[in-house]
Design a protein that fits this description.
Blueprint: H1 19-22, H2 33-40, E1 46-47, H3 59-68, H4 81-91, E2 98-101, H5 104-115, E3 121-126, H6 131-138, E4 143-147, H7 156-162, E5 167-173, H8 185-193, E6 200-204, E7 229-234, E8 247-250, H9 253-259, H10 270-279, H11 283-306, E9 310-311, E10 318-322, H12 327-336, E11 339-340, E12 342-343, E13 353-357, H13 361-374
Helix pairs in contact: 3-10, 4-10, 5-6, 11-13
Length: 375
């Protein structure tokens, strides 16, 4: 006798989910080279879409990873003691002022989870790092967007005006992604004068090491004056460790202590820890990479401008480019010529903007030649 076949049951899972989850689209990264190779059957592809360091990981970091790989059967140091100590010494702060994350993305998430209750809000610039609207939507739909000014920079006056009695956190992205623009030391100081002490100000400095502007704010020196500031940085950019995902934040020890309660166990893997420690000893090499980036970026900007494209001055390792055409269509044409760039419509910059990461000289030249061919 056959056993009865169970009827399939329909569950409307969407009815179980919060509004912020339903209305949020997952983060879509830039296309990896392997995917483009599979889709289009081409090789010799140049990826200029994800603001990665084109020079690759530094030799000392690779060596450290290779040596540590023999212990992959062991859990990593959950406290990240050696990396925390090395970072604290470099930044001239105490160990208890630091927290490590699985990229600086996790730091942002930690802060929002620790600070925000239903009905409270986070003020952030827009367009800016795409994770801000995504993360705040997921956490109680708590985001308050403040439009950039006409120069694609933070409108600090409007951001301060947006702070109300329900605001627990303000995010500043300086330099800003995806525009590459920055706000000055004077502007940031005036902004902080208007922010209440009970509002945490997260300053996202993912591109800090690339900055060359003399009037860029030294936010770290302001921590004693404004203990509500938290600074987030990453090893993904100048240090070329994007594949290992390690970021960090530093601020007042009393706040950092509470943030540790939100941190997942073993959130920074053992290979990421040893690679980051190795990178911290390579100041000269890091400086050389920043100098190279500035040289290559200036050359790339000049060539793009000569093509009649509008290029926004940048303090990062990428350029925001506005073109007299549909950015997604341009991206698709560039893909067929082996060049990956990032259209900016998902970031909120409309259909006429693309972001081009600074590559090696030969990669930049390939991008320029492909654009010439298309345009």
């Amino acid at each position: 006798m056959k056993s009865p076949v169970a009827k399939s049951r329909f569950i409307d899972f969407k009815s179980l989910l919060r509004k912020g989850i339903l209305e949020t689209r997952p983060y879509t990264p830039g296309k990896p080279i392997s995917e483009v190779e599979r889709e289009l059957g081409i090789t010799d592809i140049v990826k200029l879409a994800s603001n990665e360091n084109p020079e690759g990981p530094m030799a000392a970091a690779v060596k450290a990873v290779q040596e540590a790989a023999v212990d992959l059967n062991r859990y990593p140091d959950a406290a990240c003691h050696e990396l925390t100590s090395a970072l604290a010494a470099k930044l001239n702060i105490s160990n208890d002022s630091l927290i490590l994350g699985n990229g600086s993305n996790e730091i942002i998430d930690m802060l929002i989870r620790a600070l925000i209750s239903p009905g409270e809000n986070v003020v952030f610039p827009y367009p800016s790092f795409i994770v801000y609207p995504l993360t705040t939507a997921v956490h109680f739909e708590c985001g308050k967007k403040v439009q950039l000014d006409s120069e694609d920079r933070h409108d600090f006056e409007a951001m301060a005006d947006a702070v109300d009695e329900k605001t627990k956190m303000v995010i500043v992205c300086n330099p800003n992604n995806p525009t590459g623009t920055y706000n000055t030391s004077f502007e940031f100081s005036k902004f902080m004068e208007r922010i209440p002490d009970n509002v945490v100000v997260l300053v996202d400095e993912a591109y800090y090491e690339y900055v060359v502007a003399d009037d860029y704010p030294d936010v770290a020196s302001m921590l004693s004056q404004y203990p509500n500031i938290v600074i987030a940085r990453t090893f993904s950019k100048i240090y070329s460790l994007a594949g290992l995902r390690v970021g960090y934040a530093f601020g007042h020890p009393n706040l950092i202590k509470e943030l540790h309660k939100t941190r997942e166990p073993f959130n920074v893997n053992s290979l990421a820890q040893v690679a980051a420690i190795a990178c911290l000893k390579l100041d000269d090499e890091v400086k050389a990479r920043a100098d190279h980036n500035k040289t290559w970026m200036d050359e790339l900007a000049k060539e793009l401008t000569n093509l009649g494209l509008e290029v926004t001055p940048s303090q990062t390792n990428f350029l925001l480019v506005r073109c007299p055409c549909n950015a997604t269509e341009l991206q698709q044409k560039l893909l067929k010529l082996g060049v990956i760039v990032r259209p900016m419509n998902a970031f909120g910059l409309g259909d006429g903007a693309i972001r081009i990461s600074v590559g090696l000289p030969e990669e930049n030249r390939k991008c320029i030649e492909a654009l010439k061919q298309i345009m």
